[in-house]
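Run log, item B.
One chain of 70 residues. Sequence copied directly from the ordering sheet:
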Amino acid sequence: MVTKVITKETVIGDVLDIDDSLAPIFFEIGMHCLGCPSARGETIEQACDVHGVDADALVEKINSCLAENK
């Protein structure tokens, strides 16, 4: 089985398509509009810039959750 690795360039919609249980991680940074087409089309880095969040830390958290959910 190949595990998907998320990067800052990964589009949020792709992250949620991989595992929609990751949505609360985005809610934690104040991104409550995940159903919005523009939000789903943003990269993690773009969303972090808008919400004042460290993109590297968020990516690390997402990848840790994905590893736990395998």
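Observations after the first pass:
- The chain has a mean pLDDT of 88.
- The chain has one domain: 12-68.
Flagged for discussion on Thursday.
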